[in-house]
Amino acid sequence: MHQSILICHSFMRWLVLLSLLYSIYRAYKGYFFQLSFTKTDNLIRHWTATIAHIQLLFGIVVYVQSPIVKYFWRNFKDGIQNLDISFFGLIHIVLMLPAVIFITIGSALAKRKLSDGQKFKTMLIWFTIALIIIFIAIPWPFSPLANRPYIR
Q1: For the chain, which has fewer Cβ within 10 Å, the N-terminal or C-terminal residue?
Q2: What pLDDT tens digit does each residue of the chain (152 aa) get?
């Protein structure tokens, strides 16, 4: 089961990134061109947060089942000295949890703003911060922290 959930988690990364990038694009365009915050923009905001939450659930399941994480917590002194192991045991989750929190807060705040410009601005700021954190926390094939293939 761990391998199946890990594959889903790896695949969902692309949906999270695409939805965040598209949300940021729509927010940027809406804010700087003073567009109306449409029903479509609201759906994009909502689905971006939903996709991030689904990814978080997959990530939590992967985390509690991962042999790497189990090794890290059982052998903390050795695990913390190995960057690859400490990345998955600690760094990845410590960065991804706040990223999802930023998406959640940004989505909730944007939903409650009264003006269209403020909705777009709120999404733009909070989602961009989350995206930057996520880019750092993903184990890209070129990452100096830990690397995994683009697709499992």
Answers
A1: N
A2: 888 999 999 999 999 999 999 999 999 999 999 999 999 999 999 999 999 999 999 999 999 999 999 999 999 999 999 999 999 999 999 999 999 999 999 999 999 999 999 999 999 999 999 999 999 999 998 888 888 888 77
d(CA 8, CA 34): 38
DSSP string, the chain: -HHHHHHHHHHHHHHHHHHHHHHHHHHHHHHHTT----HHHHHHHHHHHHHHHHHHHHHHHHHHH-HHHHHHHHTHHHHHHSHHHHIIIIIHHHHHHHHHHHHHHHHHHHHH-SSHHHHHHHHHHHHHHHHHHHHHHS--TT-SS----S--
Q: What is the largest CA-CA distance in the chain?
A: 54
Whether this prediction's pTM lies above 0.85 is answered by yes
Q: Closest Cα partner for 148 from 45, 9, 17? A: 9
